[in-house]
Amino acid sequence: MGADATPIYLLRDVAKAERQPDAYAFVAPNPRVQAPPQSLAVFADSNEMTSDQQRSIHEDDIVFLDLADTAADRPNNIYAVEHQGRVHLRRLTPLPSGLAFTADNPTFALNFIPADQARVLGRAYRIVSDQSPTPSTRLSN
Known about the structure:
By secondary structure, the chain is an all-beta fold.
């Protein structure tokens, strides 16, 4: 890989002050996507965001996070959040009880995280997956 290659981290390490990238995992830069100044690429580590939707996130997909975007004020966007010592990828969803981070996988539907009980670590702005016909997906802002 060239000098511009982006290292990939484990999702669980996003919350750590000193992160170590996976020693063998890098992704080439995409000239069509402007990376935010404080960005990080991580491996999705569960099937919590896997669903029948075309924009599903599968285990081992690469998710690019904007670490400066921690306001959690964009419903339907996906965020990396820390809750009870574990880091999750979850969608910010308006519920009757207020905003919550929800999983797209129906199996985890009842495992929502109230927004005021989570620490937002960053917002996903790009997903790279080999699970769909279109290998790179840019998320809406």
